Amino acid sequence: MATTIATASTVAGLGSSSLCSTKRTSLSSGFLKSSVAVRNPLKQVSASGGKFTCFERDWLRRDFNVIGFGLIGWLAPSSIPVINGKSLTGLFFESIGAELAHFPTPPALTSQFWLWLITWHLGLFIVLTFGQIGFKGRTEDYF
After folding, report:
1. Which of 15, 57, 127, 141 has its CA 20 to 30 A from that of 31?
2. Which residues are in coiled coils (predicted)?
3. Which of 9, 85, 133 is nearest to 142 (CA)?
4. Rounded to an integer, what distance in angstroms lies between the CA atom of residue 87 and that of residue 116?
């Protein structure tokens, strides 16, 4: 039934002479190779051995000063006893000891260990990230 409707009726515009043009259009395919050589704007023959690179080779620009000062910069404030007279570092290390007391079994999901683990490491990574931004921003004269 669908074939009889498609062949019996014509769709306006597709077969009409008003849309047909005398100008020949050239269709191209991704499967056929073009006769014209396309120039790649990203290809740089002399730079990086012919490879295009978006970033510098040493994009991380790691510096052990940032790691050292960042660790000290996080250990100092996290060791201040502000959580019921205990520090975040102390609570974290205390929870490690409590979980190691029953070593073969893992910590329960309701254990305070997970809260202290995530909080302590999140703070450390934030301090290290801002330390990297500040230290490298200062040495490269961003501010």
Report:
1. 15
2. none
3. 133
4. 10
Point out the least confidently predicted range of 28-37, 99-108, 110-119. 28-37
Neighbours of 90 (CB within 10 A): 16
Distance of CA 63 to the CA centre of its chain: 21
Choose among 70, 65, 72, 90: nearest CA to 80: 90
Question: What are the C-alpha distances in Å from 117 to residues 10, 14, 90, 96, 130?
Answer: 71, 67, 11, 9, 20
Residues 6+ apart with CB under 8 A from 114: 107
Two structure tokens written together for 52: 């295009």
Distance, in Å, from the CA atom of 128 to the CA atom of 71, rounded to the nearest integer, reads 7
- How far is residue 128's CA from residue 136's CA, in Å, rounded to a whole number? 12
